[in-house]
Amino acid sequence: MRIGNLLQYTEHHRYYIFRDFSLNSLDYKMLSLIYQPMIGAFAVALFQQLYHGIAEGMTGYSPIESQRKLFLGLGMDMNERGRKYLIDQTSRLEAVGLLQTSRLGMPEQADVIYEYELSQPLSPGEFFRNQHLTMLLRDKIGKYAVISLREQFGAQEPEELANAKQTMTKENISIPFYELFQLNTQSIDVELEQALNEVAPARQAAQRPQLETAGIPYGDIILRFPRNSANRRYVERLRSDADQLAQVNYVAYKYNLSVADICRLLDEDGIFSEQEGLNVDELQLRANQLYRQDKKRESDNQRTVARMQAISAQDGEGDAELDEVGVSEEYHLGVPNQLTGRCDIQQYNMLMRNEPHTRFLQRFFPGAVPEWIERTFERIDLNYRLPAPVINVLIHYVIGMNDAQRVTKTFVEAVVSNMLMKQIDNFEKAVVYVREQTQVEADKERRKEAASAGRPGTRAGRNAGGTSRKPSIPIVQSSSADGQSSISPEKLEQMRNLARKLDGK
């Protein structure tokens, strides 16, 4: 919890609680044996105090009450020391993902209300797949204690079954929903849907942002999918799994695939697994291969005609699809010269924030995208796992800023490596990174210009003040021609006498 002034967080401020889950016996065991060694017993007690602010067996919101109740329920002093301690304990819960704290300001009042949104403890499988939480638990209780705890949360497979598993065959004989039940799809009860939405306690703001979609409904997929396919049972589950169906639609939108292409990919081996269901990474990889194969089959004439039609169609579709995620003015990047006149700065930044890199990259080229550039960004997407908005900002930086030296494989790889090292994982961080690099390059250019201005016509290096870096060496100067070079007869005779004495004559 980030509190700048302790007067902003007192027992007089009001708060409410939100949760959409109910704890079971496994959750209580996780809190006691896993989370408590990491964050302490008082933090777990604070979590349970907040949890019971809503009646057991219910989800939703608690009444708005004064935080005095929270301090008294935990036996804490209502002073500066107690506030600091409570802030520290809530921060521990937030760090391990059990709590999310927000502050709501009233426009017409100076007072604020605090919101405590609780999250359900992770299951044992999810927790031990989380590397940083597992490492924290290891640092607190030791490696062997972690191994012992992991064994306590899982019942071992019977030895007889484990020994014979390799020789046994497994057949799924479960009956799908549509074979047992038949719904009346001709009539839609609008009043029921509206009433359910009105009485639902879950808030709309907590929903995740929707992915771009190709708009392929489940009915079209299952209608074209083979009935005798081994993956049909997994495809049938997409009807009740909106998240996986959205992932399938996003892959289809990203690689411009039709319903037949999607059905062909979903029918391949390795796309589904028994434990996790849809393997999104494998689906993206094979969709990318299909996307590249389709591009190779196109002839030059077909690509030329289709390119002109696609540009106009994508421009029209993009305006309708970019209403989902906006870009604030402080993170706007300028429109490159290649796109000047085709879109304004707001539209350009919306495209860069929302489009997949395959479509955004095509906008910078009047014809086909060079194959090595396309392969480079495909590797960045599939291997380096950079988000699509970050890849688009990278395209803007290396291609859209009109510097021919940038469009090299070495430079692109260097920038990507730098982004990965600096953990650039969202659009805003990428924009800040590009601005910093642009400022660094501008400073270098100014220094070069200042250095070249101080050394006109010479090759000797000079510093910014115009003085030479080499040391000044005295040189014997020749006598001037104003009579100083002539020697008197008397002086000449003395010199000859001296020479004779030295020769011994």
Could you characterize what this model shows?
This protein is mainly α and 505 residues long. It has 23 helices and seven strands. It has helices spanning 25-39, 41-51, 68-73, 80-95, 124-129, 131-141, 143-152, 159-164, 177-180, 190-199, 218-224, 232-237, 242-254, 259-266, 280-297, 300-321, 345-354, 357-362, 371-382, 388-398, 409-421, 427-453, 489-503, and strands spanning 14-19, 60-61, 65-66, 99-105, 112-118, 272-273, 277-278. The strands form two sheets. Strands 1, 2, 3, 4 and 5 form a five-stranded mixed beta sheet that branches. The radius of gyration is 36 Å and the shape is extended. The N and C termini lie far apart (106 Å). The relative contact order is 0.05. Residues 204-209, 318-323 and 458-465 have low confidence and may be disordered.
Question: How does the overall form come out from the CA principal axes?
Answer: extended
Q: Note the run of SSEs as H and E.
A: EHHEEHHEEHHHHHHHHHHEEHHHHHHHHH
Question: Main beta sheet, described?
Answer: 5 strands, mixed
Rg over CA atoms, rounded to whole Å, is 36 Å
The total of helices stands at 23
